[in-house]
Amino acid sequence: MPTSANLPRALPDGTALRLLRADDSAALTRAYLRNRAHLAPWEPVRSEDYFTPAGQRSVVLGQLGQYGAGTGFPLVLSDGAEILARINLSGIARGPFQSASLGYWVDGEYTGRGIAQAMLQHVVELARDRLQLHRLEAGTLLHNAASQAVLARAGFERIGVAPRYLKIAGDWQDHVLFQRILHD
Question: Does the keyword NAD apply (predicted)?
Answer without folding.
Answer: no
